[in-house]
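Minutes, project huddle
Topic: does the predicted pose make sense with 3-methylbenzoic acid bound?
PN asked that the exact inputs be recorded in the minutes so nobody has to dig through chat later. Recorded below.
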Amino acid sequence: MTTIAQDIPATPIDPFSNEYLLSPYAFHTELRELGPVSYLTKWDSYVVSQYQYVKEVLDQPSVFCSGAGVGISNFKKEPPWRVPSLVLETDPPDHTRNRAVISKTLSPIVLRNLKIQFEAEANLLIDRLLEKRTFDAVTDLAEAFPLKVFADAIGIIPENRENLILYGNMVFNGMGPKNELFLEAMSHAAAVNPWVMHACQRENLSKTGLGIQIYDAVDSGIFTEMEATTLVRSFLSAGIDTTAHAISNAIHSFISFPDQWAKLKANPLLAKSAFEEILRFESPFQTFFRTTTSEANLGGCVIPPNEKVMVILASGNRDPLKWDHPDVFDISRVTVGHLGFGAGIHGCVGQMLARAEVEMLLQVMAKKVASFRFTGEPKRLLHNTLRGFEKLPIELI
Ligand code: OVV
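Predicted holo structure (tokens), as shared on screen:
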């Protein structure tokens, strides 16, 4: 089949404006209606928002590469703010080798054992919060849970773990342009970066966690000590804020749609599919970028080489060409193919761990919490990449 080259429409939509970040979905609809590809005039970047073409981008990593960064900045034109990630910001063959080392630590048997710990910790946390009754679900629940269970699983020192939230903020706000959100996040760099690198070093990791296992690859000659430290950093970059925002979004969605909460309470085993629907409906990781390595054709739209392409996962997750009633939150929907964990060779390597965490937390909540309500206005988070909340004052009964 021959495709005829189509003009790529330019749009003034600014995906980093406050208006967009607070309420992106109507903008996603507008972008999808512009066609397979459009051009963001304000940022000199292309953008892909329809499900089919988001998938096409992610399925062609040699054309849409990650090695030039997955934020708006092109590492071929400006230096990155940190040593690039050896998985996220890398292409095959290095990516393949490095990802395999992480993947090896996340075996089914390891995950089964972790799930037991996650359930026990979820019980302790929910019991404590039921006693407390009113609290901020962002700090006391959504952040507290992964800061405890994920950091324990990796084997991170217990002191100053709140740095992980600040670090995640740097990583994900750092994918955006150098706006106020970027600069505010980076203002913590001097305190947070050294702590993170310290926590990722061999001698500071627990002997029984997943992090230390990365150093086995040093001992077998695959990595240098520094590469192993950088790879452990990936666990910390990717594993806390993403999960925390997913939990906040879950709480918000269940309070906003009480029929879905009732459904979960009637059958706590729906926790697993509920999590997938949350990732589809309110994707914590909304957006990332790729960079074209050559001329790239998407649905007849031709993008020149060495251009940034914004990939809106969250828009693919609400594309009506893919989903029936995409704007309806329905925890029993079939969510196969959602893009909440990305797709293709860079699809989330920790997704089974994230699932184990949130599934256990939601299951415990469904069994123990009779009802919950907002005790104040939820406050949406302004963030260049992640969708979540800054404040979620609630009461649990
Ligand atoms: C998936 C993800 C997000 C953020 C950071 C990283 C990975 C990393 O490897 O540093």
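Observations noted during the meeting:
- The domain at 3-396 is CATH 1.10.630.10 (Cytochrome p450).
- Residues 156 and 199 are 6 Å apart (CA to CA).
No decisions taken; revisit at the next huddle.
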